[in-house]
Amino acid sequence: MTVISSTKNLEALSFTLIAEFDADVQRVWQLWEDPRQLERWWGPPNYPATFDRFDFQPGGKADYYMTTPEGEKPRGWWKFRTIEAPRKLEFDDGFADETGAPVDAMGSAHAAVDLEDIGGRTRMTIMSTFDSEEQMEEMVKMGMEEGMKEAAGQIDALLAEHSHA
To answer: Which among 42, 45, 92, 107 has most CB atoms closer than 10 A?
Structure first.
């Protein structure tokens, strides 16, 4: 299994997911910097993501939606803060309305992604931090933990597909 651990820390208002992959850091980084590859794993398997804007640079924004099994299209946004290819990525993320505008009432979270070489393989750590305990608990109730695990669980198949290309 790809996902090594997932940890909720209420004191630090954080959720951390650690996964490892049989690919080098540069290859795993491509899954973050290429929106066509990102949308093949971001989100649970039955909620495919579509990125309709992806300005991958510090200060740039990404807008996306997921298509639910019922055909609904909840939207989200990212604002890239730090991009240090191929090891570090930080961005703010949140929900958006149907026009792509941030929904301030839902708050936003900060995600920090670190990719580490472990003998030719890659350990990926994603730490999400929240503004408040209530916000974090709401995200957990909405299925964030399971959704993140399912999303990361799709990466192995994508890596295997490209290693045979």
So the answer is: 42
What is the reported pTM? 0.93
Tokens of residue 96, six digits: 């958006």
d(CA 165, CA 161): 7
Which pair of tokens denotes residue 56? 């991958």
What integer pLDDT is reported at residue 26 of this predicted model?
A: 97
Q: What is the average pLDDT across 142-156?
A: 91
First to last CA, the chain: 23
Residue 67 carries which DSSP code? -
Query: With contact defined as beta carbons under 8 Å apart, do 54 and 32 qualify?
Result: no
Bin 74: left if φ > 0, else alpha if -120 < ψ < 50, else beta. beta
Count CB neighbours of 119 within 10 A.
Answer: 5
Reported confidence tier of residue 165, pLDDT bands at 50, 70, 90: low
Contact 65, 73 (CB under 8 A): yes
> Could you tell me the two tokens for 42?
């971001």
Q: Give the model's pLDDT for residue 106.
A: 82
Share of the chain above pLDDT 90, in %: 78
